[in-house]
């Protein structure tokens, strides 16, 4: 059982300003933020990136594919939802951290067709989250800040430190915010992204 006391932080925090192509902000939080559609709308969040493999959120409010027999309901959601599915600790191939970087980048840059079958086209701010917003989402967000705002974050530790501060992660939590295995994964992804940048492919 986790004996670390829960810190009474907000459901989400803005951790980066004007990081998207149209000046969008990046928010980071846990499942309480990700499940609160009113909160997301109040902050202009139109895309959510879920890092947690053990958390599924049903955003479909008005399914056009009804549940029937063994088939689940499906349809459009009021926001765009992306999911990578990381384990909170050992078990993730390190390439998944690299995939997380590009998935988050896609949430900011993806161009949505002007068609009725793509009703959620507005480009707004982005929330990255996991269950508590303390480890998996912190790791991927740190990797993203490191490479999308390198003047502000010359290395991963600088990005992690900034996120810890803005997310109100307390020093007694730092040993697991993010978990060591996730720091190792984003360190390897950081090296791969540096090579891509050197080859002018990033």
Automatic annotation (TrEMBL):
Q: Which residues form the Tyrosine specific protein phosphatases domain?
A: 106-167
Which SUPFAM superfamilies does the UniProt entry name for this protein? (Phosphotyrosine protein) phosphatases II
- Keyword ATP-binding belongs to the record: no
Which UniProt keywords are given for this protein, alphabetically ordered? Hydrolase, Protein phosphatase
The EC number of this protein is 3.1.3.16, 3.1.3.48
GO function terms (MF aspect): protein serine/threonine phosphatase activity; protein tyrosine phosphatase activity
The name this protein goes by in its record: Dual specificity protein phosphatase family protein
Instruction: State the organism named in the record.
Output: Pseudaeromonas sharmana
